[in-house]
Amino acid sequence: QQAYQPTNTRMASSRKDDENPWSSSDEEDDDDDDEVEVDDDDDDLFYSICSYSHHNPSTSPKFDTLALALEHDVSAYGFDFLSNLVSSTNEDGFFEGAIKLVNKCRQFAKDKEEDAMEAMKLGKELNEFLKSHRVNDEDDMAYYKPVLEDDAMLMCIDEIQELKRKNEKGTQDVSASLDKADELDVSKTDSETVKRLQSQIALLEEKLARAKTICIASLANDDESMSDDSCSDEEKPNKKKNSKKKSPDNDSYYFNSYSNTSIHETMLRDTIRTAAYENAILSNSESLFQGKIVLDIGCGTGVLSLFCAKAGAKKVIAVDNSDIIHQAKEIIKLNGYEHVVTCVRGKMETLIEENGLPLSNGETVDIIVSEWMGYALFFETMLPSVMAARDAIMTPVTGSMFPNVSKIFIEGASSKRLSYWDNVHSLNMAPMKERMVSELTADAWVEVVDDEDIVTNRVKVVEHDLNTCKDEELDFEAPFELRLRDGKSSDDAVEVHQLVVSFDIDFAVPKTTVVSFSTGCQSTPTHWKQTVLWFDPMHNCPLLRSDDIMRGTFRMKRNAKNHRSIDMAVIWETGRIGEDGSWVRSMDGVLRRSLIA
After folding, report:
1. Are strands 293-297 and 476-482 parallel, antiparallel or unpaired?
2. What does the buried/exposed string (b/e) look like for 16-40 if buried means 16 or more CB atoms within 10 Å of the residue's CB?
3. Active site residues
4. What is the pTM of this model?
């Protein structure tokens, strides 16, 4: 299927509207020859839509080019004029539609000038006004008359169409587009935007100080303090000097975090998770486990190893690289299975390389059991370690991973969180919305989403056969289509505030009893909850009506700096199939969020 071409894609609010939002800074230099030339005469200076003062025109900022004027509306007011135009390919309707849209926007700004409202609020209200007053309405005939005398914008409709065409251009390769988007030169971002982003980051770091992160930091400090105490006075200066050169040890932080009791308590109290493993193992005692050698990777307290021993395994090797392994040994002995289960501490790849597992020459494991899943399935990136054992020591042909199938799903949701601020103890706190949106759209969130808030169908974006998949397949991109779910269709547009990511797990080895569990919103919540990617509900939020489709490409990959973090990107568009079978686009955009370990 040919990749669709998104328009009005926002990578940063400060980009010029005549730039391809997917291009790198190098490519932008090459495109200079294609730009429309604009005269520099004073008579041809442009006024932006939102910043022009009809009461005091001389105080209004002037711009040398149409693109700069439109960009000012985007960066200062959150209003994107080009996104409200009809398609540039609509030769019959574009010229008249652009004239009416310019005048309609200017009239709105003129009517609101006495209100002296904040910039972003003016932009937001103009966006909402245009959503409810489309330029094709018959009552828009009055907007053929210029609101601003000698308006340079009205003299440059051809240039507006060219800017719109470039904005729609997109690329033919979605994967290449996403990679180029990652390489955009952030130095072009204006200082105001940088300050706002820095403020958002500071707020998130403060509010998202998860218990796990705090635990990791504490353990890391304790480890360094102990190491310093063990050095002589002469060695300490050199140690500190050398420590500055070290890159973050993401593996040590990861393994140390599992030394904390609360993490294991949380996982064990998750009865959906633990009961699924117990049922899958014990219900397949005869068909899968009796007399077999089992490897349990990331054994924690040893609960899965004990299930395997109870199912009749002749040997179970329980591996963990945190000091919880000491309690696992005691628990296994306390329950009378120390003759079956052997505990080994170490990193899986190192144990394989150094022959550190209790296996005889040529001996392999029949089953690899592991609970490796993280938020959004791949957060913390434990699966590659399990796959390394699979490829090195699992019995060929007859051996199996357990579970052996994983699937990732997405679905759309609406939220009432922003509307809360409209009436707080009979007080209007609407200014808090902008602040909240800045926080919600900074990164991915992990939370339980109520099934009642889900407004679209749930679709699978990827499935992995854990017995055969390769490491490079864990970074993936896939197309998707979402529609309003049954019972949510309406003549009024439904706002999609969130893209919700969840996963399903199958224990489905052939000729065995199949057991599955889901982390979707329709199922009992687990400790994984759901991973939520917020759209910007104040500036570019997808709207769906009964026959509309939201489609695009979803990508997930490991973070370049910390492979235990994951980056997600979504190119999306909404629209419907026209009577002639062609695609009619309504809205589009790009969403980029991360889960940081």
Report:
1. unpaired
2. bbbbbbbbbeeebeeeeeebeebee
3. 371, 380
4. 0.62
